Amino acid sequence: MTAADTQLDRRMEQLHTWGPYGLLGVSVVLASVAAELMDGPVEWQAAGALVAAALALQLWWHGTRSRRPGRGRIPSRAGTAYYVVRWAIAFGLTWINPFFAFYAATGYMDADELIPGLWRRLGLFASAVTVAAAQAGGLPFSGAQWAGFAGLLAVNFGVQAVVAHITEEAEQRSRERAETIAELERTNTALQQALDENAALHAQLLVQAREAGVADERRRLAAEIHDTIAQGLTGIIAQLQIVTNTPDPAAAREHAARAMGLARESLGEARRSVHNLAPVALADGGLPEALRKTVTEWGERTGIRAEFTLTGTAEHLHDEVAATLLRIAQEALSNTNRHASATRAGVTLSYMGDEVTLDIRDDGHGFDPAATRARTRTGGFGLDGMRARAERIAGSLTVESGPGHGTAVSARVPLVRHD
Predict the structure, then answer these.
(1) What φ, ψ does residue 157 adopt, rounded to 5°?
(2) Residue 376 confidence class, pLDDT cut points 50, 70, 90
(3) Which of 147, 151, 200, 390 is paired with 304 by a 20 to 30 Å CA distance?
(4) Is residue 59 exposed (0-12), middle (13-18) or buried (19+ Cβ within 10 Å)?
(5) Residue 343: exposed, middle, or buried by beta-carbon count in 10 A (0-12, 13-18, 19+)?
């Protein structure tokens, strides 16, 4: 509700409270001026008694209205009784002196707030009867006055009925507007709650995304360390063991040089892993050359016959795709060296339209894939680690093996070209 609406309601409240007093006072003054219209002291006494009754009624209603804050303008039985008694007093006063019709016109002012429903029209009609009778010359009527009274009654009641209808429509629109405003306020409150919840959810998602990013980076570093540094250290240890066990100085120097080369390579890989760079083997060429070099060096280091095969037309792959396939190949060869007791191993890289396939095979003693442990929440670094790497770039990894039948690991990933 606006300030103007509040001001208007306050003025209407004052009019309904003090208007009857004012109109009663005006009626008394005009009736006194037109005293010749009253016959004898009996009518004077009757008029005085009715004026006193009207004043007492107004004082009673004033007190009753004050004790019902916020409800004085709601139709009630007390309000209807007040209206009826006031109309009876006004009718009696108008019979005595027509100028008391000003007080009778009070019924036009507050019928809407005193009388409920359709009874309101009956109240307006009763007030119109009193006012029209006064306008026709006062009761009782002679023969010609009845026609004038009927016309005046029709005009008075018709005007008041139209005004009442317009007032009711305005009140209905006001109620609908108030309901609309209340609904909008409820909607705004619900919207604000939703916005607050969304803000809290957004903050929670940011925290979860940050935690997921940290966890993913930890897994990446752990996998990189396992695939590079750990394997490099394993190779260094193997070379140093040969150095300590061989009596040939030339062979010892050769294996020591290999150990130093592995140490340098592992250090470079560690730095690249920390900075999330491509593997060092990819720095000077594409994936086929990196795989060929990896297979050759692995075969020389382990003494296992190893071959690399390229099929299809080689393309320059995205760094992430190339690094993933290289790491899978390194891990698979490392597993072959540690667990398979193989004499031969082969790595095949195939470019097939919109995907790339990497196959690593060995003739070792094999294993039962169904008997291996399930992938853990931390990801693992063997078969689970290779599978996680492939899935990270929308690929897949399959393993075919059996006791005494060797092992074949196949990774299939989308062919994403270098930008």
Answers:
(1) -70, -40
(2) very low
(3) 390
(4) exposed
(5) exposed
Sheet holding 396-401, edge to edge: 305-311, 344-352, 355-362, 407-414, 396-401
How far is residue 324's CA from residue 319's CA, in Å, rounded to a whole number?
8
Structure confidence by residue, pLDDT tens digits, 302-352: 889 999 999 999 998 988 899 899 989 988 998 898 888 999 999 999 999
In this structure, what token pair is assigned to residue 67? 């004790």
Q: What is the pLDDT of residue 379?
A: 41
How big is the chain, counted in residues? 419
Strand partners, 414: 355
83, 110, 124, 171 from 17: Cα distances, Å = 13, 10, 19, 20
Beta strands 344-352 and 305-311, pairing class: parallel
Catalogue the E-assigned strands of 211-264.
none
Residue 415 structure tokens: 């062919």
How many angstroms separate the Cα of 379 from the Cα of each of 113, 305, 376? 78, 31, 5
CA distance 297 to 280: 14
Q: How far apart are CA 300 and CA 292, in angstroms?
A: 12
CA gap 141, 134 in Å, rounded: 10
- DSSP state letters, 107-159: HHHHHHHHS-TTHHHHHHHHHHHHHHHHHTT-SSP-TTHHHHHHHHHHHHHHH
Collapsing DSSP to helix, strand or coil, 282 comes out as helix
- Cα 47 from Cα 32, distance rounded (Å): 10
87: its two tokens: 């109309």
Whether this prediction's pTM lies above 0.85 is answered by no
